[in-house]
Structures are given as structure tokens and as C-alpha cells.
């Protein structure tokens, strides 16, 4: 995969081809087993194509990749999986813009969403030292992983159009 593929993945008006489960796990920095569990328990469902029985494959969108990386970062920061589920339920219901433009404040086991000049407690408990996790950094991490994937790992719409 090259730099132009990363740009096409989130800036193009062409239909998104998406990323396989293996690619999504690699880009998010998680194991395939984690990815599978999160999909089966509805934490992050692949938005382009979900698996429906044996032989079908999940296809993850660029936004899905961002969500997966945010989840990993929250878990790495010590937030429990149940709280991460609450955070994502709130984010999906209340954040209309690109998730990478949001800022989350982590205070112990509590997670606050910085919404303009307001801090919204999305878990409603916890205490501790404040840490700021900029989700824009997640976007950069995902873009970097996309750039470093081998070029044959994702379909190239230009090549496909030339042969189709």
C-alpha cells in the first residue's frame, strides 16, 4: 500500500473498498482474536460488510479503523472494557463530526468528552490524575499503518477500473 491509498481511504468520493479483518487488526495494533470478539459483542461492527456465516468476510471502513484504535488506546490507558463500551455508545450518539476531531480526558476510571468548552462525563464515576488523549493522533497512527501495508493487500480502484 502506498501513501495515495491512505489518502483515498478517507478522502475520496469513490466507494470505499475497505479493509479485511486481518488488515484492520494490524492497523489498529490489536490481535485478530480481539477484533473478532469486539465484532461479535457489538463494540465495533464492520460498517462495510459483516460476516454472515462460514465463508463470508468482514470489511472495515476507515472510520472503523479509527474507532478500533481509539478503543485500544482507551484500554491501554487503563479504562475497563465495560466503560469503553459506554464511551463509544455516547460518542456514537453525540459526536456528529469525525471521531478524530474529538478530545477525551481520562481521569482515573472516568472518561470525559471535551465538547467545545464543556467536559461531559460519559462514564459518570472515577477519580485520579487527568490525562488528555487527542484522537487526532489516532488518525495519524492509522494513516501511518495504511502507508506501510504492502501494496497488494488492498484493491486499487484505478487498477480495477482499467481491467474492469
Task: Write out key terms for the chains shown.
single chain, disordered N terminus, 164 residues, Multidrug-efflux Transporter Regulator, Chain: A, Domain 2, alpha+beta, globular, 4 strands
Structure description:
- By secondary structure, the chain is α+β, with helices and mostly antiparallel strands.
- The chain has a single domain, classed as Multidrug-efflux Transporter Regulator, Chain: A, Domain 2 (Orthogonal Bundle), CATH 1.10.1660.10.
- The chain is 46% helix and 12% strand.
- It contains seven helices and four strands, in the order H-H-H-H-H-E-E-E-E-H-H.
- The chain is globular, with a radius of gyration of 17 Å.
Element-level helix/strand string:
HHHHHEEEEHH
- How many discrete domains? 1
The assigned CATH architecture is Orthogonal Bundle
CATH topology: Multidrug-efflux Transporter Regulator, Chain: A, Domain 2
Q: What's the tally of helices?
A: 7
Average pLDDT value? 74
Q: Which oligomeric state applies?
A: single chain
Amino acid at each position: 500500500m502506498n501513501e495515495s491509498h491512505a489518502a483515498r481511504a478517507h478522502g475520496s468520493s469513490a466507494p470505499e473498498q475497505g479493509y479485511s479483518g486481518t488488515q484492520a487488526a494490524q492497523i489498529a495494533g490489536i490481535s485478530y482474536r480481539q477484533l473478532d470478539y469486539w465484532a461479535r459483542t457489538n463494540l465495533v461492527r464492520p460498517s462495510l460488510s459483516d460476516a454472515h456465516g462460514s465463508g463470508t468476510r468482514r470489511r472495515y471502513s476507515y472510520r472503523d479503523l479509527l474507532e478500533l484504535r481509539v478503543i485500544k488506546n482507551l484500554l491501554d490507558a487503563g479504562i475497563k472494557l465495560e466503560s469503553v463500551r459506554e464511551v463509544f455508545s455516547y460518542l456514537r450518539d453525540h459526536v456528529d463530526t469525525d471521531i478524530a476531531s474529538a478530545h477525551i480526558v481520562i481521569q482515573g476510571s472516568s472518561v470525559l468528552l471535551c465538547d467545545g468548552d464543556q467536559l461531559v462525563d460519559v462514564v459518570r464515576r472515577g477519580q485520579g490524575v487527568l490525562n488528555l488523549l487527542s484522537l487526532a493522533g489516532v488518525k495519524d497512527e492509522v494513516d501511518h499503518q495504511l502507508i506501510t501495508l504492502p501494496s497488494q493487500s488492498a484493491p486499487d480502484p484505478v487498477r480495477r477500473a482499467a481491467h474492469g
